[in-house]
Amino acid sequence: MPRELSAIRAARPTAVNLPWAIDRMSNVIARIEAEDAGRVGSARVAACRRALLEEARRIDQEDVDACRALGRHGAALLTNGDTVLTHCNAGALATAGRGTALAVVYEAVENGKRIQVVSDETRPLLQGARLTAWECQKMGVPVTVICDNAAGWILAQGKVQCIIVGADRIAANGDVANKIGTYPLAVLAREHGIPFYVAAPTSTLDLTIASGREIPIEERAAEEVTHPRGTQIAPDGVSAMNPAFDVTPAHLISAIITEKGIVRPPYDLAKKLGTSPPKAEVRE
Amino acid sequence: MPRELSAIRAARPTAVNLPWAIDRMSNVIARIEAEDAGRVGSARVAACRRALLEEARRIDQEDVDACRALGRHGAALLTNGDTVLTHCNAGALATAGRGTALAVVYEAVENGKRIQVVSDETRPLLQGARLTAWECQKMGVPVTVICDNAAGWILAQGKVQCIIVGADRIAANGDVANKIGTYPLAVLAREHGIPFYVAAPTSTLDLTIASGREIPIEERAAEEVTHPRGTQIAPDGVSAMNPAFDVTPAHLISAIITEKGIVRPPYDLAKKLGTSPPKAEVRE
């Protein structure tokens, strides 16, 4: 693999979609090189560029379709009048399509259901306050921003009917890596007897790892904690930990919503999602 | 009660220490007025001022003593090498003495134990990042700041041996109101089998209420969420909820550390802490 691709592939250790897409592009290069071994350099480069662009457009369209399809599957889980709590941004701003967790909300709203969103601000990078709130406003979905700290109390007040989040990597056993702060929400959802859903395309699935214990968690710069948006909030020289993701164990997840259908426990994902076409039992 | 005192008394609905102190000052005024009914105005005012200053100094000294005493009781709960997670600021900056949760840490350190603190930044007002981190640095206690979102994952890694927080009001059944985000920590502590301690002087006890359901939760300005430290982080016009406190049910609390001793469940606090001198069974 060319050095530039390897660099991009390794840029973010936790999420699996980026290496997955890089591998698809890399396979195109390998195929062209094998097929066109006889051609002169410039013709081979031109063929390679065309094939890469085609593959990129295919990935883009597949993601658009996957977002749409998983939104349709997931919308059936929402009831008219529901308030959905979400974390980080798992919407149109984070995907080629209309998103994952938010696609479920958008589809339910388009089906005529009144749905409200509560968006965790999602420290340190505040994707919930900056992106999810903006996106919901644009889509005409009522949205309320809260500090991450307030989610537990708002659940305790009975104000939320379900939690839906996206995913950065899903292990074969259903363990899910997602934005830091997701795992506590899953624990709180169980505490309050409300469903905790993960919405993700099957490109997020990593069947090469048996469980979430094998998912590396990216540790990011301390300044994201100590200097949010450039403003210093902690004293000089204080140390900070900044894990960017956490792992939610499968036993806390009520269902995984994919473009192939909704998967319920037990999460034998190699069997339920690893083959193509999708097995009928995953559809609800 | 004079109008100024009533205004201060009602300024913050959740915490009970402020009305408690106002009531003590108010009782001084009532006593002087009753005793000195015969004196002329100016002499009565002078007597009243002297008595109020005395009472204020008494409250101050009592708080210093209570912080010191509860620190001593609590220090016995910590083991050499422990990492303690705390939330908000429950230290010298928040009390007349050396604090509550942090007093426990300081005392253990002075007893020769190596203790580290993990400080939740504590959105929205960031008391953990701004105050607790600064105070621990000044006291020479190693401290690491994390986003509130990271607490669950750090507990899951086994990096924390106990959680200690302060309290704004404790009901007769042991339910505890404290800074928003405390309740999720208690749920997570139980999930990971580590103790969750509340450290507070008995002036925080409100025996007039049977449970936490009767504690009013202060809802503060949305701008604390949408404009932290004056920087806008959410789109114009988005709504926000900003409950400043939450209630942790007594069944999630391993012990309450007071100046009279350590109280374990069952929290029949009227019996265990409501009398003076303290009952022997609360000491450990």
Short descriptors:
homodimer, 284 residues, alpha/beta, disordered C terminus
Provide a descriptive summary of the structure in words:
Two copies of one chain form a homodimer. Chain A is of the alpha/beta class and 284 residues long. In chain A, 38% of the residues lie in helices and 15% in strands. Chain A contains nine helices and twelve strands. A seven-stranded mixed sheet of chain A has the order 3-2-1-4-7-11-12. Chain A has a four-stranded mixed sheet with strand order 8-5-6-10, covered by helices on one side. The termini of chain A are far apart. The relative contact order of chain A is 0.13. At the A-B interface, α5, β3, α6, α7 and β9 of A face α5, β3, α6, α7 and β9 of B. β3 (143-146) of chain A pairs parallel with β9 (239-240) of chain B, so a sheet runs across the interface.
Q: What's the short story on this structure?
A:
By secondary structure, chain A is an alpha/beta fold. In chain A, 38% of the residues lie in helices and 15% in strands.
Write the layout of secondary structure elements.
The structure is a homodimer of 284-residue chains.
Chain A: H1 3-9, H2 17-35, H3 41-75, E1 83-86, H4 101-110, E2 116-120, H5 127-139, E3 143-146, H6 151-156, E4 162-165, E5 169-171, E6 176-179, H7 182-191, E7 196-199, E8 205-206, H8 223-226, E9 239-240, E10 245-248, E11 255-258, E12 261-263, H9 269-273
Parallel strand pairs in A: 1-2, 1-4, 2-3, 4-7, 5-8, 7-11
Antiparallel strand pairs in A: 5-6, 6-10, 11-12
